Amino acid sequence: ITRQMRPRLSRGLTQVLAEPMAWNQAPVVVTTLPNGLKVATKETFGETTSAGVFINAGTRDESRETAGAAYLTEQLAFTGTRKRPKDRLAAEVESMGALLDMSAGREQTSYTISMCNKDLKQGVDILTDLVTSCPVGNIAKEKEGILKTMDEIETPTRAVLDDRLHMCAWRDYALGFSGVGPFDGIEGLTEAHLQSFVNANYTAGNMVFA
């Protein structure tokens, strides 16, 4: 979190990671909450704020049976949650003039939002909702549309080449699973597969909020 959001926490451990590089640069402060969640904060001097949840999980945490779970879980976040259905989520983000983004890679999944300083509390609430209420129950209704979108997206040639080289290097290890697709077996993923992936990886000790 940037701008005026150093947490006032009496519990947990706080550590200053870096000293200011210049007179107008604040240090990064990392606070570890009792549940293991790390919160990294830095004060800036602009009129906008960025916040994100970074999860130490990606395709390397999948198995042959759950290949594609990281990508599909991240994509399902765009379909909304019980508290914020898809249309309400889109309208709320638009009304803030915010930019909401999610991405899943080999070793990390991220949910980020950028907004005006005054909307920080609302933005954090949106992120919290998306991460703690992953809508894996929407998979039956949304999977077909997500897979169709995957087929229509033209992945840059360089990204595909890098991905295939990585797959060759790691071969049968999970770290060699594709990060850009196609994801073998993704059509067979069920709600149970995704819920198992979320339960194992979307934990406080496995996340950084920054």
Word description of this protein:
This protein is an alpha+beta fold and 210 residues long. It has a single domain (47-209), classed as Cytochrome Bc1 Complex, Chain A, domain 1, CATH 3.30.830.10. Helix content is 34%, strand content 18%. It contains 6 helices and 7 strands. It has helices at 69-76, 86-96, 120-132, 139-152, 157-170, 191-201, and strands spanning 13-16, 29-32, 38-41, 48-55, 99-104, 109-116, 207-209. Helix 1 (69-76) crosses helix 6. The radius of gyration is 18 Å and the shape is globular. The termini are close together. Residues 38-178 form the Peptidase M16 N-terminal domain.
Question: Keyphrases for this structure?
Answer:
Peptidase M16 N-terminal domain-containing protein, MPP/UQCRC_Complex, alpha+beta, seven-stranded mixed β-sheet, Pept_M16_N, disordered N terminus
State the end-to-end CA separation: 5 Å
Low-confidence stretches are: 1-11
Q: For the record, what is the CATH homologous superfamily label?
A: Metalloenzyme, LuxS/M16 peptidase-like
Tell how many strands the DSSP assignment holds.
7
How large, in whole angstroms, is the Cα Rg?
A: 18 Å
Strand line-up across the major sheet: 1-2-3-7-4-6-5
| CATH classification class | Alpha Beta
Q: What is the percent of helical residues?
A: 25-40%
